[in-house]
């Protein structure tokens, strides 16, 4: 019976593997079709609000790409790693940057002070990255380049045979700001913190979820806030889902946060509606 059971389990495992492979193959096909055929409406860019914990006002937004395949939305958790492996992340990243910049330029800086865009390690390693960024900034006509933030992760640092610090300096020279994404989850976060001319530290969700009931997480947050301040960086806490965690972050002195509690990623018009709602005066007759 045990043998039978084992076989059944192997069968189940095979099925799961096959399904995952099929999903990847379908996602890659959809991604290629979207990028090759210029059907970029299949790659909508959504925006998640970033808020000040003190005022609860929107201070920025993170651009997050989606893939529309066979009428369904595929998560970037599935297709971004795949795009990274195949090199499709280069044209994908260009599309996201261009779309995000067009949207940012259409927002005045009071409505939306900044937009942050994720940059994958492979994209950053491309020799053409800085020229592409320069061209896109010129094309969109954004007058203040510091309204663009690029989010990078620690894996950018690992074995790519490029001088990363030179590349990051070139980005900073354009006036664009840098954020360290998913901070605290890598192997050498402190080296990363020290070696990158970053303006923003995005504290990973894993330190935020359940913060209100966890002394250790509170201690880590306090330490990161202290470090960041000493190094002239500001902190955004990621993944705030609960009012209690938002409160604990505010009490710890964290300036800003992002998460479902404040708002999910939305299409730009929906985010506009969210921003203007609290300021709308009641109709007077
Ligand atoms: P990330 O850059 O760390 O983005 C934050 C992710 O957390 C987003 O997932 C967002 O929807 C999700 N999130 C936000 N608030 C909450 C919350 O309160 N709870 C939970 N559980 N999740 C929350 P998303 O949009 O699925 O993106 C996943 C990852 O895919 C991103 O992680 C980023 O690494 C990558 N990604 C997304 N868009 C792009 C892109 O345009 N280019 C590149 N290179 N990567 C992208
Ligand atoms: Mg990010
Ligand atoms: Mg993040
Ligand atoms: Mg994260």
TrEMBL record:
Superkingdom field: Bacteria
Signal peptide boundaries: none
Occurrences of domain EAL (ranges): 24-279
Keyword entries, A-Z: Membrane, Transmembrane, Transmembrane helix
Name of this protein: EAL domain-containing protein
Range covered out of full length: 479 to 763 of 763
